[in-house]
Amino acid sequence: MEAIEKMNEQLDEATDYIQSQTQFKPSIGIILGTGLGSLVDGIEMQATVGYDKIPHFPVSTVESHAGRLLFGGLRGKPVVCMQGRFHFYEGYTLQQIAFPVRVMNRLGIKTLIVSNAAGGMNPNFNAGDIMLIKDHINFFPGNPLIGPNDEKMGDRFPDMYEVYNHDYIKMAKQVALDLKQPLQEGVYVGLTGPCLETAAEYRMLRGWGADAVGMSTVPEVIAAHHQHNRILAFSIITDMGLADNMHPCSLDDVIGTAAAAEPKLRELIAGCVEKM
Ligand code: HPA
Predict the structure, then answer these.
(1) Domain residue limits at 210
(2) pLDDT digits (tens, 9 = 90+) for 2-22
(3) Tell me, what CATH number does 20's domain have?
(4) For ligand 1, atom 6, which residue shows the shortest CA distance?
(5) Whose CA, among 14, 62, 220, 269, lies 20 to 30 Å from 96?
(6) 210 CB within 6 A, ligand 1
């Protein structure tokens, strides 16, 4: 009980602080992953709030991430964007990673859009492809919902029937078609990193039915689903992890491929937001 009260107190303090800085009411939350930074250019900015100013908010350790919430209109829809996200490999707990998702819910979001960079394991994929996430495997050593459950927030045992909203999946495919952009679809497996996978691990994960692997998204999506948000998620396939065709993979390659795919993903997400 005490733990729930403390959590709610922290969420209230974070939310109150943000609302003291802006009256903006977002209905859509967007977590900008690797290679989605420029989505920001399409936003008519109303306010920004630095993570470091928000009580109890985790602070980004990755130097390339700015670490702030952006509020504004995207294709006419009120959005809040997390510019800079938190990864388990940085040392945050899964509960800390979920915290901003909880705060965005209190700010009013009904929908969460998530993007990430991922390694492709489906042999039909190529580096540079965009994959619509239709399901996930949680291979993190835990779950952000472990601990006392606040029934007001969500169920103790959430059903995982339609985590990635089926209507959004249909819509995203139509938007991609209208944009004449190819769009892959598949299962994302999330794990800790920071190592990439060994050949044996890629083989195992592929055997489990995963099409792409990465180090984020699953904790945020679990928290968002728990609080009944509708979810739409994409991976940029930045490199291929094929167990029988391994080659060195540098961070520069990953970043470069993500940056090259960015305009495609930006248009896709903006097109989806317009229809939400
Ligand atoms: N594995 C895990 N995470 C990743 C990869 C990968 O191959 N590529 C980009 N993020």
Answers:
(1) 2-259+266-275
(2) 889 999 999 999 999 999 999
(3) 3.40.50.1580
(4) 119
(5) 269
(6) no
